[in-house]
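Reopening this ticket.

The earlier resolution said the output was attached, but the attachment link was broken on my side. Pasting everything inline this time so it's all in one place.
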Amino acid sequence: MELPIESLPDEQVLVLCDLQMEREQQEVFSDLLARNQEGQLNNAEVKRLDDLMEVYRCGLVRKARAMKVAVERGLKPPYS
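Inline output:
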């Protein structure tokens, strides 16, 4: 279970602000997305794409929350 971002120290909040999918996951994700658009995925690949999509979504939400906390703490400038 992940700790709430609000409870993390500044350094960890800033690390989360730069959160990215692991390189290997990103490469597989990109490949599966492209092949999915062409209708070339088998059932196992569709499942893998769904799993990676969930990792991607969760990462985006965590990154957004970290950015909000960082701005609130004055660690990052607010977006305009």
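Reporter confirms the inline version is readable. The mean pLDDT is 95. Residues 43-72 form the longest helix (30 residues).
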